[in-house]
Amino acid sequence: MLINDQYQQLALKVLDRKELYEIETQAYDALYEEEGIVECFGHWQYNDQYHLLLEWGSYDLEEFFQIHAPPTTTDSIIQFWDAMGTIIQALSKIHRLGTSNHVSSKHAKTYYYG
Description:
single chain, 4-stranded antiparallel sheet, 3 helices
């Protein structure tokens, strides 16, 4: 998909429960354009399913550490911790939203579009 004159890989998350959809859309709306957060490009309901069009994350943090070697030079160590700071700030903002609800994967399906 072409977004801001660049092709982007996307994920389509499909939920089967309205209350979970509302939790996720409220969270994405509250975190709109926050650095370090996967972006939600839109959301909608069709029939009895609820859809979120999301920025594709290539892998999660655990997978990142399995794929990439630890930084060894001064510059790469600084770059790594700057990036980790962004992730930590993003997680802090998520936790400050005040919701303890978690969307279980048994109520969601995610499809990749590249």
